[in-house]
């Protein structure tokens, strides 16, 4: 039995490290069919992702590989492991909830999606509102999901001011006190963050995860 | 190494211009002639129908002799490594890179000061070249200034042979080349075997304008008989030892190297002659022979094209500079000269990372930087595949307008094999770069060089070979110093 557990664990880890979606699905299904605790399988997924993150930081893995690993892990978690946890009356522990989106007037998707993917890999539940998201929509999402953090992305210098407007809308709806705001996008600077009263920004997706953990006081 | 560049190689001259340069060269050799300071070579050229004026040592070489020599030449030359996997075949448009030799100083990048180079520096340069993936052949970069001058070339070769498995090329410096051959023979067991495994090449020069020195011609003939690669090319300076016009300087350089080939091929049919010119310009403000001049780049393009016209393996220059320190000028001149030399399609491109300060100074860190430059150039010149899979219509359709390619299998399949990754150039965002120490290119090159020198172990020579090599050095040294 011990041997069997390690075999499934190895298969999950290997398929994540080789970005093989089919193999990962097969290994996870087999693990669940054989009656392994979904919590244990989830632990393997999480620790493998951490290893992939380390390999990215030391230059061994490339960015697209990191994101792919995160994406296929997300599929496994939402389609297999979470339903299995729910069946047994338990649920996945997440380290926080984040609502994220690209602000109104801006349809640049990729930077925000990479940050969302990294956050989800790090163990956050991420609600991605997509692009061209108005301040009102952000307000609605905060009411609905009660996230600890919302992330506002803007690539264009001309859409940066919408980050300020979104923060204002949160204040007007008396929601600002219950949620931290991170902002992102190429033109964002430390000065801009201060000027609009946001809580932080990261220079890149890796930094963004660190910033979120820091403002929520979650240890690395 | 660029095995077969996919992109079009730079053809500098039109066919008509190329032919006029060739015709002018033949006229120089037939009507003006060259001076040869070596008696045996004069007699040899006399015997094959050249017009030799023995009292003045002037030889006028008829067109048919020059062209016959070109026909006799080896059109493909094996330049062997100690290990077969490092063998180079000099032919067609195969492009290889290596260091130079001749610096008497080493640049200390930390203090921007120079000190005389030692045999240990030669060993380090060879070791670094052995480790760097883009360096295909090894010249010792420095000269050992801590040994007797008469035997310095032997010590350079001794240190190089011990520290690399790649093909080794050395400058003769006028020393009897038989000593060099004897040393290299120890690696393969006996001199005869060097013909099968020619792991030593020699670089020697005529003296511009149009003069062949005694010792250099002797060595040229020695290497021709030994069937080892010979680079015999002029270092003329336009405006001083060559005409002010680049076309004229090229004609003269061509006459100098081609007359060297006549001597080589009639000494031994099929001599492993490598053709080219290290011709540059005398700077009109300082009088120096410039190492970063665009005039030299023109010569590189011209000689590679002429070499292909003659079907001879070619020699070229890149990765060097006129700067006094390892700065923006040094990396700019190194990068541009390397790119021009590579896009000329020359077979051996030397002087990588060396010859700061007009050839007197060498820098290991510049060698390391040039490794990155060559890696980039090779990536570009190797070209890209254009086929159904790489045209990517399927994945473009799959993603469609909007969306992204990051999570496509096509991306995962290709991102590693399709793209170039820097090992020295920095692409971090500013904050991360500041956090990791705000290191500039020089500092990173210094770290990488230090790491290689402290961690790379060149494949050692077997102990009996090492002993034999040491013995030959000692014996030769005694002979030369007692003579």
SSE topology sketch:
The complex is a heterodimer of chains A (220) and B (483).
Chain A: H1 2-17, H2 21-33, H3 38-57, H4 63-87, E1 96-102, H5 110-121, E2 124-128, H6 135-145, E3 149-153, H7 160-172, E4 180-184, H8 190-196, E5 200-201, H9 205-215
Parallel strand pairs in A: 1-2, 1-3, 3-4, 4-5
Chain B: H1 15-32, E1 34-36, H2 39-47, E2 51-53, E3 58-60, H3 63-72, E4 77-79, E5 88-90, E6 96-97, E7 101-103, E8 105-108, E9 113-116, H4 119-131, E10 141-142, H5 152-163, E11 168-171, H6 177-188, H7 191-194, E12 200-204, E13 211-212, H8 214-225, E14 230-232, E15 237-238, H9 246-267, E16 273-274, E17 280-281, H10 294-310, E18 315-317, H11 328-343, E19 348-350, E20 361-362, H12 364-381, H13 388-391, H14 393-399, H15 409-418, H16 430-435, H17 441-455, H18 463-482
Helix pairs in contact in B: 1-9, 3-9, 4-5, 5-6, 5-18, 6-18, 8-9, 10-11, 11-12, 12-17
């Amino acid at each position: 039995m011990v041997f069997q557990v390690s075999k499934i664990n190895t298969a999950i880890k290997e398929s994540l490290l080789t970005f093989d979606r089919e193999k990962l699905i097969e290994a996870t299904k087999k693990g669940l069919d054989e009656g392994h605790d979904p919590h244990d399988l989830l632990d393997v997924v999480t620790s493998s992702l951490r290893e992939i993150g380390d390999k990215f930081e030391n230059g061994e893995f490339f960015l697209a590989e990191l994101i792919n690993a995160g994406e296929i892990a997300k599929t496994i978690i939402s389609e297999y492991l979470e339903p299995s946890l729910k069946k047994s009356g338990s649920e996945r522990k997440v380290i926080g909830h984040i609502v994220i989106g690209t602000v109104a007037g801006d349809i640049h998707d990729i930077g925000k999606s990479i940050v969302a993917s990294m956050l989800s890999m790090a163990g956050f539940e991420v609600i991605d509102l997509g692009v061209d998201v108005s301040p009102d929509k952000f307000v609605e999402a905060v009411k609905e999901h009660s996230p600890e953090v919302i992330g506002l992305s803007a690539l264009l210098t001309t859409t940066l001011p919408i980050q300020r407007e979104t923060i204002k809308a949160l204040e007007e709806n008396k929601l600002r006190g219950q949620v931290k705001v991170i902002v992102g996008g190429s033109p964002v600077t430390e000065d801009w963050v201060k000027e609009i009263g946001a809580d932080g920004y990261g220079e890149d997706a890796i930094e963004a995860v660190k910033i979120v953990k820091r403002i929520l006081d979650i240890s690395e | 190494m660029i095995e077969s560049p996919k992109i079009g190689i730079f053809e500098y001259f039109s066919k008509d211009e190329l032919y006029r340069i060739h015709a002018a060269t033949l006229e120089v050799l037939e009507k003006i002639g060259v001076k040869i300071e070596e008696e045996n070579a004069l007699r040899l050229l006399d015997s094959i129908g050249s017009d030799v004026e023995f009292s003045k040592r002037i030889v006028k070489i008829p067109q048919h002799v020059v062209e016959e020599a070109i026909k006799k030449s080896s059109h493909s030359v094996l330049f062997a490594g100690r290990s077969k996997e490092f063998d180079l075949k000099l032919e067609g448009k195969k492009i290889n890179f290596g260091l130079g030799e001749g610096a008497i100083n080493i640049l200390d990048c930390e203090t921007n000061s120079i000190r005389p180079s030692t045999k240990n520096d030669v060993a380090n340069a060879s070791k670094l070249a052995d480790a760097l993936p883009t360096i295909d052949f090894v010249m010792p970069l420095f000269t050992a200034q801590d040994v007797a001058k008469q035997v310095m070339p032997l010590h350079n070769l001794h240190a190089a042979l011990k520290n690399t498995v790649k093909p080794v090329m050395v400058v003769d410096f006028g020393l009897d080349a038989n000593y060099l051959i004897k040393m290299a023979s120890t690696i393969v067991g006996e001199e005869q075997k060097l013909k099968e495994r020619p792991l030593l090449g020699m670089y020697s020069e005529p003296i511009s304008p149009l003069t062949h020195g005694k010792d250099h011609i002797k060595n040229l003939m020695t290497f021709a008989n030994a069937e080892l690669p010979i680079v015999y090319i002029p270092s003329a300076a336009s405006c001083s030892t060559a005409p002010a016009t680049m076309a004229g300087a090229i004609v003269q350089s061509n006459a100098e190297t081609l007359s060297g080939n006549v001597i080589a091929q009639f000494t031994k049919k099929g001599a492993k002659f490598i053709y080219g010119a290290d011709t540059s310009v005398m700077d009109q403000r300082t009088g120096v022979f410039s190492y970063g001049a665009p005039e030299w780049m023109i010569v590189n393009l011209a000689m590679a094209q002429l070499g292909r016209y003659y079907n001879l393996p070619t020699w070229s220059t890149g990765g060097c500079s006129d700067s006094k320190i390892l700065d923006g000028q040094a990396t700019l001149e190194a990068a541009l000269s390397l790119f021009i030399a590579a896009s000329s399609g020359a077979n051996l491109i030397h002087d990588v990372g060396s010859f700061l300060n007009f050839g007197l100074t060498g820098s290991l860190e510049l060698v390391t930087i040039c490794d990155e430059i060559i890696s980039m150039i090779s990536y570009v010149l190797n070209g890209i595949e254009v086929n159904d899979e790489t045209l990517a219509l399927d994945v473009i359709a799959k993603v469609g307008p909007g969306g992204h390619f990051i999570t496509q299998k096509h991306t995962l399949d290709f991102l590693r094999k399709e793209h170039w990754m820097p090992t020295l150039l920095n692409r971090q965002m500013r904050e991360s770069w500041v956090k990791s120490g705000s290191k500039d290119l020089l500092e990173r090159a210094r770290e990488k060089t230090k790491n290689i020198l402290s961690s790379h172990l060149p494949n050692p020579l077997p102990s009996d070979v090492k002993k034999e090599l040491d013995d030959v050095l000692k014996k030769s040294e005694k002979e030369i110093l007692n003579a």
